[in-house]
Amino acid sequence: MFFDLTDEQRMIQRTMKEFADEVVAPGAIERDRKKAFPKEIFQQLAEMGIMGLPFPEEYGGAGADTISFAIVTEELSRVCASTGITYSAHISLGGAPLNLFGTKEQKERYLTPICTGESFGAFGLTEANAGSDAGGTETRAVLEGNQFTINGSKMFITNASYAKHLALTAITDLKDGKKEISAIIVPTDAKGFTIKDEYEKMGLNASNTTELILENVVVPEENLLGVRGNGFKQFLQTLDGGRIGIAAMAVGIAQGALNKAVRYAKERKQFGRAIADFQATQFKLADMAVKVDIARTYVYKAAWLKDQGRPFSKEAAIAKYYASEMAMEVCDEAIQIHGGYGYMREYEVERYMRDAKLLEIGEGTSEVQKLVIARHILAD
Amino acid sequence: MNIYVLVKRTFDTEEKIVVSGGKIQEDGAEFIINPYDEYAIEEAIQKRDALGGKVTVVTIGGEDAEKQLRTALAMGADEAVLINTEDDLDELDQYSSAYILAEYLKDKEVDLILAGNVAIDGGSGQVGPRLADLLGINYVTTITSLEIDGTNVKIVRDIEGDSEVLETTLPLLVTAQQGLNEPRYPSLPGIMKAKKKPLEELELDDLDIDEDDVEVKVETVEIYLPPQKAAGRVLDGELQAQVKELVNLLHTEAKVI
After folding, report:
1. Which of A200, A229, A258 is the last residue of a domain?
2. Nearest residue, CB atoms, B192 vs list A8, A10, A19
3. Inter-residue contact A215 to A150 (CB < 8 Å)
4. How far is A90 from chain B (nearest CA, A)?
5. What is the pLDDT of residues B96-138, one digit of tens each?
6. I need a surface site. Which of A6, A249, A378, B65 has the fewest CB within 10 A?
7. Pick from B74, B185, B189: CB nearest A18
8. What confidence tens digit (pLDDT) does each residue in A19-71 have?
9. What is the mean pLDDT of residues B205-222?
10. Among A55, A57, A61, which Cα is nearest to A99's?
11. B247 in any annotated domain
12. How many CB atoms lie within 10 A of CB A315?
């Protein structure tokens, strides 16, 4: 057992901590209010080589590990969860499936611009009637000659307005009434492809969440990603990695909320003493710290298993389930410690809570995580 | 261009510092590259990228200082040298640091040496100038701009709220002031490559330095934290009366006039 970060991981953590505090934190309130996408921040992250973090150097990546990815996602989310989710989706939903299932040509063409930051990464799965139940997928891709013609729509798709291309799932055949689902890479400037970002969300306002409408969008057959008919399986594998990202976001948000609660508890005086002197506050802070620490340790474990090439699906689900629920609890208590000020935007913990809620929902709700965990336990 | 940068590992003064038994507690303290040295590293990298050559970062200290050197390598320095005095010396001062650096650099082909204007811990600002003197080369302190054309150098120097423009020639030692540049964050590829870059570790023996040669000349009498800042006072009443009271307080209470 070895519980320390490597020198590289530590240096990445230090660098990202400074970057988050100096560059990302200052505009976070404003970006939330104005729903402004943090484009300049990502330009800087691209210059720092962070956008291709876990991908191979031959495609412009940096060849770093999943723990490093979790560290970067956590540090960004600690000060601005919108920046955190943009990054997490870019890597784990946008880049990862191309890296896992793409051919060499596809990687050169589509993964490289994601690594350099020229394009954001995005993935089109969710539809009005299909989330974790991918069987509800209605988007169809009809192969004629050597071209797919795609019709349908996708919703809640992160980053698509800033992506040059994305992979999406579509029905490519019907066999005995069973849908064959495949993943296909589609350039976002293709004719008939419309991307709308008109959602009014509870939180994560500075992140880009879109609706995709495909009307007779034509792409060559070579844009098929991975194996035909494996779309759903590939997607599940992609989500396993994505869940580590969501869990890391949760740890970051909760750590940020805890930091703010600690600072406030020391400053705020009532009845002639700092409220941090009261056990009622101390017990809250202790509970919050326990949760954050346990969640982080577990996220690292799931990431480590992935880096070792070992099964990590159950652990990613545990990490995502526990970390996202604890993030809501910690944010709730952080607001409570702040009292009336905590309800105000200026003190930021209310934003943390709005942002954290998505983590119990996106990339599989808590309930779906429990199903995944139970399935593993029962199969043992 | 052969560029050397003097780097010091210091406490992060933005983190909590605990003094006990006349010493700063190292446990739990955060350590960083002295912020002024970061300007020096950044300038060295920019000059190398523009003019070619090699950037070597040098520090004196213990094994732990390797972290700061690796960070400088991750930023883009080419090589690092750790002069490890952990086993030989209990303490260092400006004299001994400059002497050790001079012994290391005296046989080297040096075009430019950069250092921070001061270290934020000791704050003497002496090591750079002392080293230049020992090496017999020019030096300029607290620079905010550096232009090199062949061996001619044009420098803007910060002089307490104003600027001074100087011309000099290489070889040269300069110390960096805030405003010289904006130090970069280490890039991820830089971080991944930092471990593979050469880091040479030397001891006093390797430099033929006798411990007696570097006996410190400065004695530390006491270390203490600055006094807690007291709450301010707001005067009220008529403006005229306020001014009178202020002058009176500055004279009798603060005793500054």
Report:
1. A229
2. A8
3. no
4. 17
5. 999 999 999 999 999 999 999 999 988 899 999 999 999 999 9
6. A378
7. B185
8. 999 999 999 999 999 999 999 999 999 999 999 999 999 999 999 999 999 99
9. 90
10. A55
11. no
12. 24
**In this structure, how many other beta carbons lie within 10 angstroms of the beta carbon of residue B160?**
5
Which is catalytic among the residues A127, A211, A333, A363? A363
pLDDT, mean of residues A347-364:
97
Which range marks the domain in which residue B98 is found? 2-214
CATH number at residue A187: 2.40.110.10
Contact check, Cβ <8 Å, A49/B190: yes
Q: Is residue B47 part of a domain?
A: yes
Q: How is residue A279 written in tokens?
A: 């056990």
What pLDDT, on the 0 to 100 scale, is given for residue B4?
98
Closest by alpha carbon to A121, among A88, A80, A82, A72? A88
Q: Pick from A369, A355, A368: which is nearest to A31 by CA?
A: A355
**What separation, in Å, do the N-terminal and C-terminal C-alpha atoms of chain A show?**
24
Asked if residue A216 and residue A278 are part of one domain, the reply reads no
User: In this structure, what token pair is assigned to residue A126?
Assistant: 């969710």
Concatenate the DSSP letters of all residues of B132-181 into one string: HHHHT-EEEEEEEEEEEETTEEEEEEEETTEEEEEEEESSEEEEE-TTS-
Instruction: Kindly report whether the peptide bond that precedes residue A56 is cis, defined as omega within 30 degrees of 0.
Output: no
Q: Which DSSP helix (H) or strand (E) runs through A140?
A: strand A140-144
Count of domains observed in chain A: 3
Query: Residue A282 sits in which domain range?
Result: 233-379
Domain with residue B133: its CATH number is: 3.40.50.620
- Are A49 and B74 inside 8 Å of each other by CB? no
